[in-house]
Amino acid sequence: MSVLACHARVIAALAGCTALVLALTGTASAHPGHPDPARQVLAAHDGWGAQGTGTTGGAAADRAHVYTVATWEEFKAALADGGGAPRIIRVKGMIDADGPGCASFEVPGYDFAAYLDRYAPEHWGRTSTLDAEPDDSPEGLRRASAARQDAFIKADVPADTTIVGIGRGAGLKGASLQIKGVDNVIVRNLGFESPLDCFPQWDPTDTADGNWNSEYDSAVIHGSTHVWIDHDTFTDGGHPDSTLPSYFGRIYQQHDGELDIVKGADLVTASWNVFEDHDKTILIGNSDSAATAAVDRGHLRVTFHHNLFANLVERAPRVRFGQVDSYDNHFVAREGYGYSYGIGMESQLVAEHNAFTLADGVTAGSILKKWKDAPLTADDNYVNGAPADLIAVHNAEVPGEILRSGAGWTPVLRTRVDPARAVPGLVDHRAGAGHLR
Ligand code: CA
Ligand code: CA
């Protein structure tokens, strides 16, 4: 193959030539002439995931370690099998990962009505948490029930793994992927419907009004390196926050994040994904505490490019510590929008060549949110089709929260940069699950 043909294919399929060779010599592709998505590796220079040894996932898997799964049990068995050999897990159809329903996780004696009665603010007050409640209390029974759900819906992803959806309509409903303490993982072409926490905990001390707090991100990258999240769709699907009830005057929040990157995780590329219909979407670094800072400082380097962020409330992403490069993404904001980029402790965000489509009533000054004083670079971004200086417009709208310009570093790990004005047309039709075949 000529270098020119290979280059053209890289641009067409966002695959490295190494991946193409692997595809041609490894598993046969269903579509001759196209690389098998299961064998593709992250292209050289394609974001922070390409740094150092790069991200190859399970591309080197032998025939015995290619699994095709159609149930949650088969999926978890494939993750547990193989003794550390590189593996490819092909997901067929939408897999139900959350069991037959919340009642199936309840331990004997658990009673939500009793929980509401015991911990109502007029009975319990608002000054202490429920953490010291004994095991036979309503909170203790909630804890035990939650532990059962936790064990069921979480799945640990081992090193050197590629998880890939087959064609259209493949995904995981209600799962929480744990990419924890490992290197070299690829997750592609999957639809994730957010897990629904069956047992949120009431915390009377979280804000003056208290809060219902839930666990479970669709995927969490926890202390892991070299992760490529590509062509996936993350959504609340059939149970958006608008359908959730309220108790004690607070929304009974059953969702956590879509993709959280925490605890010293590093070298992540997220490309061509759709993140939609969710509140707290992507958290990069989960605390300002000294202990967390010691783990996160110098890590949490993540690249986002050609993603669609649509109809979210906040955190796309919210960044602490890391050098995050966000370019060529399309953000669509409507009523109920909070912010896109959260500027947190010691973060060094670079946000360039992005396009924002804001509904009437959403102001460009709310695209950035200052949580801590940290500098960022925001160049060549477009809002509703016109160039906009995001920092200047933020500082004009929110004079009490002045942001500083100049992230202090220049991203070099980019393969292709499209002009911001072209981004909506490219991303809206090609990002998300179902496009890789
Ligand atoms: Ca189910
Ligand atoms: Ca989380």
Structure description:
Strands 1-2-5-8-13-18-21-24-27-30 form a ten-stranded parallel β-sheet, with helices on one face. The longest helix has 16 residues, at 138-153. Residues 1-29 have low confidence and may be disordered. A hairpin with a 7-residue loop joins strand 10 and strand 11. The radius of gyration is 22 Å and the shape is globular. By secondary structure, it is an alpha/beta fold. The protein has two domains: 3-34, no CATH class; 38-430, Single-stranded right-handed beta-helix, Pectin lyase-like (Pectate Lyase C-like). Bound molecules: calcium ion (2 copies).
Mean pLDDT: 93
Q: Compute the number of structural domains.
A: 2
Strand order of the largest sheet: 1-2-5-8-13-18-21-24-27-30
**Radius of gyration, in angstroms, nearest whole number:** 22 Å
Give the number of DSSP strands.
32
Unreliable runs: 1-29
Bound ions, cofactors and other small molecules, one mention each: calcium ion
Structural class assignment: alpha/beta
Strand content: 25-35%
The CATH top-level class label of the largest domain: Mainly Beta
Largest sheet: 10 strands, parallel
- In CATH, the topology of the largest domain is named Pectate Lyase C-like
Cα shape: globular
CATH superfamily of the largest domain: Single-stranded right-handed beta-helix, Pectin lyase-like
Helical fraction: 10-25%
Q: Helical stretch count?
A: 9
Give the name of the CATH architecture of the largest domain: 3 Solenoid
Ends apart, CA distance between termini: 22 Å
